[in-house]
Structures are given as structure tokens and as C-alpha cells.
Write a structure and sequence with these properties.
90 residues; single chain; mainly alpha
Length: 90
């Protein structure tokens, strides 16, 4: 994933939600590529630091949205496990 323009705070969070969903829910490999010239607010550095150090960005999702994402991840992992067990049983 690459940032191609300067983003507002709202656009930044939407960008992160989109790519974290691709990486977490859809279980696809992503690369986060950003240069310091693309960051127009120090808050973005803090968000990236939190993501790298604690694995999440505080307050990126509202409580209900965060729960929905967690459920989507669990459902996706269960479907993958079911598929793997089906293949192994054959």
C-alpha cells in the first residue's frame, strides 16, 4: 500500500481501515510504504509507531466497528480451518 497524496485526518483513518481490513480480514499480504514527505501531521507517525509496537491504532474503530472486524477475522479463520480439515480428511 502506498500513499499517493497528502491526506486529511479522516482520509488517513479511512486509508488505514481499508488496508488493515485487507491484511487482517481478507488475510492478504500487504506492504506499507510511506516516506516522511508524505506525512503532513505528526499524529500519523504516532499511529504508525502504535501499529508497529502494539499492533493496533487506538481509537481507529468505534467499539461496535471493532467488534465487527474481530468477528470477520474469526469467521474467516474458521472457514480456512474448515477447508484445511476437509482437505486433510480426504
Amino acid at each position: 500500500m502506498e500513499i499517493e497524496k497528502e491526506l486529511t485526518q479522516l482520509e488517513w483513518y479511512e486509508f488505514l481501515r481499508k488496508w488493515l481490513k485487507i491484511a487482517g480480514v481478507e488475510d492478504k499480504k500487504v506492504v506499507f510504504l510511506i516516506t516522511d514527505s508524505q506525512i503532513n501531521d505528526d499524529k500519523y507517525f504516532e499511529d504508525i509507531n502504535n501499529l508497529l509496537n502494539i499492533g493496533e491504532i487506538p481509537n481507529l474503530y468505534a467499539g461496535e466497528d471493532k467488534e465487527n472486524v474481530n468477528i470477520q477475522i474469526i469467521v474467516g479463520k474458521n472457514e480456512l480451518n474448515s477447508l484445511l480439515f476437509t482437505i486433510v480428511d480426504r
